[in-house]
Design brief:
Distance between the termini: 16 Å
Helix content: 40-55%
Order of helices and strands: EHEHHEEHEHHEEEHEHEEHEHEH
Shape: globular
Low-confidence stretches: none
Oligomer: single chain
């Protein structure tokens, strides 16, 4: 397959005011990143957030995306990812089309089946079995494509029953905004490979060996293999997105690995080769990104907000290459 050029995004979750958020969006654009992602979480500080290991997030995604688009001109805007159970599907589809229209075609539509059972519970929502949630996701994807096509909508499923109108507004991007779907198991990754333009491969565990007997690197390669098998001829057109959850610029990686191991209570020996850990000098980071693209397909890289400044030189080196 042809190697996809690198593209870079920031996951921005720390702004607590309008000024912070607008300044963040403008800075990310100025630093050369392609995209600003928000997250779809709603619980504030308390037992539910601790149970989910969720940091505080002040801003709800739809309004934050619209605000970021309004103060930038080239930055793409997305949610990594919308949980379908947190929104009325027909309303979410219209909101997304509106953001794409008002941003003049800068939306990236991330969508998923939901993961955080404790957040569901805190929000008073039933947490259905995984099979049911993915069934619903398939129906919501069909609704997205139907609404954005401009053709009459007539969908009658177990979870989505929408009919009797054409979707408005039509998105600015043609034929539609790119879809990003993520996951870690065969059904979700296969669905993403068939239906999306961007496949987000979830972070792999930090266990030295998982239940299937795979190391973190082997697990990432296995997930990429599932995507390749399901994508078939679509593979050259897909972007594979991943995130170095820990991104630390240093000339003393051993100390950094020791710190990370203490933060998340894992064996430090698993960290140097972990696909979601990016530690070292800029040259070492660049080589790791190139290796990850070769081994796992990840050409679209999302860094956490706290790493966007130290990572920015790599954006300058690698964006579009």
């Amino acid at each position: 397959m042809t190697t996809r050029p690198f593209r870079f995004a920031v996951q921005g979750t720390r702004a607590t005011s309008a000024r912070e958020w607008y300044d963040l969006a403008r800075k990310i654009e100025d630093l050369g990143y392609s995209t600003l992602f928000v997250a779809d979480h709603y619980v504030g500080p308390g037992p539910a957030a601790r149970a989910c290991s969720l940091p505080p997030q002040h801003l709800a995604p739809i309004a934050a995306m619209a605000g970021a688009a309004a103060v930038t001109s080239t930055l793409r805007i997305g949610c990594r990812v919308f949980c379908i159970d947190y929104h009325v599907p027909a309303a979410l589809v219209k909101e997304a089309a509106t953001i794409d229209l008002l941003s003049e075609g800068r939306l990236e539509m991330g969508i998923g089946a939901g993961l955080q059972e404790n957040e569901y519970k805190a929000l008073g929502l039933p947490f259905a079995p995984g099979r049911t949630r993915v069934d619903k996701l398939e129906e919501v994807i069909a609704l997205l494509k139907a609404h954005w096509s401009g053709e009459p909508i007539d969908l009658h499923g177990e979870h989505v029953n929408v009919s009797g109108y054409r979707g408005l507004p039509l998105p600015a991007q043609k034929p539609r905004p790119p879809l990003m779907i993520g996951g870690n198991r065969k059904r979700m990754l296969s669905l993403a490979a068939r239906e999306a333009e961007i496949v987000s491969i979830s972070n792999v565990p930090f266990d030295p060996v998982n239940a299937a007997g795979l190391t973190p690197k082997q697990e990432a390669a296995h997930r990429y293999g599932l995507v390749r098998a399901a994508a078939g001829g679509r593979l050259p057109d897909l972007e594979i997105e991943g995130s170095p959850y820990f991104t630390i610029l240093t000339d003393n990686p051993a100390a950094a690995y020791k710190d990370i191991a203490g933060w998340i209570s894992v064996d430090a020996d698993v960290l140097p080769d972990h696909p979601n850990v990016l530690v070292g000098t800029l040259d070492e980071m660049e080589q790791r990104l190139r290796d990850n693209r070769e081994n796992f397909g990840t050409s679209y890289v999302t860094v956490p907000q706290n790493a966007m400044d130290t990572f920015a030189p790599l954006v300058g080196r690698l964006q579009g290459k």
